[in-house]
Amino acid sequence: MTRLRWALADGWTITLRDLKHWVAQPWQIVFGLLFSVMLVVTFGYLFGGAIEVPGGGDYREFLMPGMFALTMLFGLEATYTAVTTDANRGVTDRFRAMPMAGSAVVVGRASADMLNSVLTLAALVVCGLAVGWTWHEGIGRAAAGFGLLLLLRFALLWLGIFLALVLRSAEALMALQILVWPLGFLSNVYVSPETMPDWLAAIAAWNPLSATVGAARELFGNPGWGGDSWPAQHAVLMALVWPAALIAVFFPLSVRAYRRLSR
């Protein structure tokens, strides 16, 4: 219990350090929020008029749960950049030389990123309300939907931390972006997988992002694409299983990669 208490205290210290960086450089958060709002405006108003929602309904209500999840996915790049920068500047090595818990740096980074994600999600919710989106199933189910979105972010940030500690290359960020964008678009965020070829629709249906988006639409009471596939019929379950699997794999790998980190 003493070791756990000190591990949590060390992790909170690292979290406060990252929060102070945001206060000193708030433009990073501001630009991230503006980018998310720009995507909502672009797809909601420029392209939305040409897209039909399966079963009818307003496209912006169909779009917003997908935009919430997509923003959680894009946070993967921010996590990777922050961890890589600390590693390349020698900050991580200084932490490793100090008497602190081995998990403190990665746990602190995760806590800071989750706080950032809550702020980003809240801003995007306000944007959604402004363009006509809302939830229709009560505050309890809405809270569950937001919880699943943050659970996805929590799972993905461990993937970002692990990749940053293993690759430790700013140049690899471009390769990561090349992977993130197809993962985001090959889903049910913007259109129904039913409009895709069968083989592509199957990939989109089993995409972890699609599971969270489908579950969020169901919990918010927003128009959804439905579908006859097993993941489509069990979206809430898959929105729990996918993040749990990612955390089970990449959390211990992240801590292990940090402990073995060397210059």
Q: What does this protein structure show overall?
A:
This protein is mainly α. The chain has one domain (2-259). It contains 11 helices and no strands. The protein has helices spanning 2-24, 27-47, 59-88, 91-96, 104-130, 139-167, 172-185, 198-205, 208-220, 230-233, 235-259. Helix 3 runs parallel beside helix 6 (139-167) and helix 3 runs antiparallel to helix 7 (172-185). The longest helix is centred in the N-terminal third of the chain and has 30 residues, at 59-88.
Strand fraction equals under 5%
Provide the succession of SSEs: HHHHHHHHHHH
Mean pLDDT: 84
Instruction: Count every beta strand, where a strand is a DSSP E run of 2 or more residues.
Output: 0
Backbone structural class: mainly alpha
Number of helices: 11
Distance between the ends:
32 Å
Shape: elongated
Protein name: Transport permease protein
Main location: membrane
GO molecular function: ABC-type transporter activity
Pfam families: ABC2_membrane
Question: How would you summarize the topology of this molecule?
Answer:
Elements: H1 2-24, H2 27-47, H3 59-88, H4 91-96, H5 104-130, H6 139-167, H7 172-185, H8 198-205, H9 208-220, H10 230-233, H11 235-259
